[in-house]
Structure formats: C-alpha cells, structure tokens
Amino acid sequence: MTDAHxxxxxxxxxxxxxxxxxxxxxxxxVIYSDDKKTVITTINxxxxxxxxxxxxxxxxxxxxxxAGDGKMVNCRIGVPKYSGLNAQRPxxxxxxxxxVARYLLETGFTYPIYSPDTSPEAxxxxxxxxxxxxxxxxxxx
Length: 141
Prior knowledge:
Elements (H helix, E strand, L loop, with lengths): L2 H9 L10 E2 L5 E4 L6 E5 L7 E3 L7 E8 L2 E6 L4 E3 L10 E2 L2 H9 L6 E4 L6 E3 L5 E4 L2 E4 L1
C-alpha cells in the first residue's frame, strides 16, 4: 500500500460511510465514544458470517514442526478462500475481522471493508477483560 493510494482514497468525493453496512461478523460491532463508556452505535450481524475457509483434504502435509519435548506438530499449506459474503446487498460496506479484511483486500475485493480496531488505544474491555467494543474502525484501503 502506497501513501499515494491512501491519499487518493481520502480525496474521493464519496467519503466512506457506514450507511447500509453489512456486519459479517458473528457478533455485534459495538462502537464507543473516546471515553470508552458511551456507546455511539451497535451494528448487529446482518447476514452470513464472512470467514476464510480451506479444504484440509487437499492440503498435503509439508513438514512437521518441533513443539519441544519430543512432540511434533503437523504443518499444512493451503490457499484460503472466503465464504459467507452477503450477495443480497452488492457493493455495501462490509465489517469483518481484521484477518478476513486484510485477505479480501489482497484478493482485489472492491467493497469498502472495515474491521474493529483492537489496538490497546481503541479496544474497550469489560470487567472480566474480554473485548466488548472499540472506539474506532479500521478502513482497509
């Protein structure tokens, strides 16, 4: 990704928007204000979960990895594919996990793609330490 590409995206007249967004994660995406206390919006799942999938039956073992203490772990190689894209709303912005969003971007996916920012500055944690939301989204360009 070049700085020129990012600058081009930011100059577009059609600024990114969450209007009509499809949350392709299996749970709500809760976005808080910067104080990490006030919920700005909750975007509920809105269709099939977008996931990376692979067929292990066609991925041969390439080697074993030493896990220590004489234990070995099989290692397979494969090319992931995605499944679960909500085809009912073509070109709608999509919220997906960071891993799925980065993969889609690399494959030439043309929909606007967002993922929750789980960096220490943005993540919101509950009393037991689990992630309950974020203060911002990552826009993958």
